[in-house]
Amino acid sequence: MSEERPINPRFDDDVMFRQVAPGPPRYATTTDKPVRYFEVADKESGVVLGYVWASDEDDAAAWEARKAAGPRALMESSIWFHRLESAKGRGISPSQALQELLTEHADGKFGRARPDSLREAPNAAVVKALAKGE
């Protein structure tokens, strides 16, 4: 064994990277500008599952699952996230998407948008903290 050889022969192979196409268009998921948001409540219990927020200033919008609502809030996440992604793909502003989700697409799998819960916050961090229970 006097001959030198690599520990793992695969390390001798050339490395090749493939560039993949970017994903679908998405709104930014944070902003320090003012946001508008509404609550999504459980259809059965009325417990708040999370919040949908938006801000036109930074082209930002997101769903924030409420930590205290547990697994139902996480399962609801994909529906609201997909709706926001779809809205961005259609080229509408975050505030238009928020209004559309509040009125036309108000029902999720477990939750329902509360039209009377539309509020304003100074930035996305406030809504995120609200979802965490801070």
TrEMBL record:
Q: Which domain of life is it from?
A: Bacteria
What is the name listed in the Swiss-Prot or TrEMBL entry for this protein?
Uncharacterized protein
Native source species? Streptomyces thermoviolaceus subsp. thermoviolaceus
